[in-house]
Amino acid sequence: MNVPIARTSLTEEEIQSVLAPLRSGWLVQGPKVREFEELWSAFTGAKHSIAVTSCTTALHLSLAALGFGPGDEAIVPAFTWIATANVVEHLGGKVVFCDIDLNTFNLDVTQLAEKITSRTRVILPVHLFGLAADMEPIMQIARKNGLAVVEDAACGFGSRYRGQHVGTFGDTGCFSFHPRKAITTGEGGMITTGDDALAAKLRRLRDHGAAMTDLQRHLGARPYLLADHPDAGYNQRMTDIQAALGGAQMARAAEIVAERQRLAGIYDKEFSALGWLKTPAHIDGLTHGYQSYPCLFQPEIVSPASVVRINEARNNWMDRLQKAGISTRPATHAVHMLTFYREKYGLRSEDFPNAWAANDCSISLPLFHGMSDAEQRYVIQNVIETAI
Ligand SMILES: *Cc1c(COP(=O)(O)O)cnc(C)c1O
């Protein structure tokens, strides 16, 4: 049997949904984008939702709209997808890494305050793998120091912090619709914000800085006259083809989240007695969305002294699982260990020991909507039989 790490599952109706914009001739950021944004706001409780081309452009646009620029510093968790750090570089800023908590894989808030300098402008907490970062202390520290907060909620669909959907705490929240995420539009992203002026600026910046969208112009009295451009913006517009696909999936949003939670619950139960596999944390007040199912392989206590040994054992285990047809991945990467950041900032693995340990000892198991009982049983059996 072959079990992939993830598989997209679209209904026939969702697949058919892309035909309407193709037939209407309105392909780019039109009525379907507006509809998807409204559905997104309704589901997350955000005041404004602004569709863009990816989570990376959502993060980039958020920083640009907040006036982040050369010389400014942004605090980024050392264990995340590289895009969280890259957008800071794109705008000429400096990335200041903060280590993570190995229990949650999220920003260690006890180390946050000491990263702040006179140049710090923004904190970029990540709700990694669908578990919310500890937003209350993060927001407190940000307010006390006059810092902006841009939430990387790429994996945050269905993730809640004390009942409130992630992406609605900071100045903006940024979501991804890459096929590895719970809702997909191929490529795509969404920005959420509660700030009216910021929302207006984000809408202009994604669309060449235009004061009016094409849809507004076409619905207006003089559709043949062009808009003014108060900003030098970008082209980060989502297509109506993508938005039709995203909007169609929102009809079963609650079911998509519930199914991932059901599958994770079965893994939790089956693996609960295994001392050598630490399954995703359950934290009071947090609802996990399970974008993935990241575990820590711990055949011995994880520490700087054992990381290299465990890493080799983990990789060999991944080989055995792959031979059995089961795809796994390291949960994500420690960005400070990647060549660009290591060389530019002169960093060593041990500078952020928990991110290093997560990089070398984590393993994500297959979890996706549409995973059959037989597939999940096959994964469980092989995980238990092949690990040590
Ligand atoms: C997927 C992901 C991104 C990038 O999303 P794209 O839509 O592919 O640009 C950024 N941050 C995190 C944490 C992610 O998981």
From TrEMBL:
Keywords: Aminotransferase, Pyridoxal phosphate, Transferase. GO terms for molecular function: transaminase activity. It holds the Pfam family DegT_DnrJ_EryC1. Coiled coil: none annotated. InterPro entries: DegT/StrS_aminotransferase (IPR000653), PyrdxlP-dep_Trfase (IPR015424), PyrdxlP-dep_Trfase_major (IPR015421), PyrdxlP-dep_Trfase_small (IPR015422). Gene3D superfamilies: Aspartate Aminotransferase, domain 1, Type I PLP-dependent aspartate aminotransferase-like (Major domain). Belongs to the DegT/DnrJ/EryC1 family. This is DegT/DnrJ/EryC1/StrS family aminotransferase. It comes from Rhodocyclus gracilis.
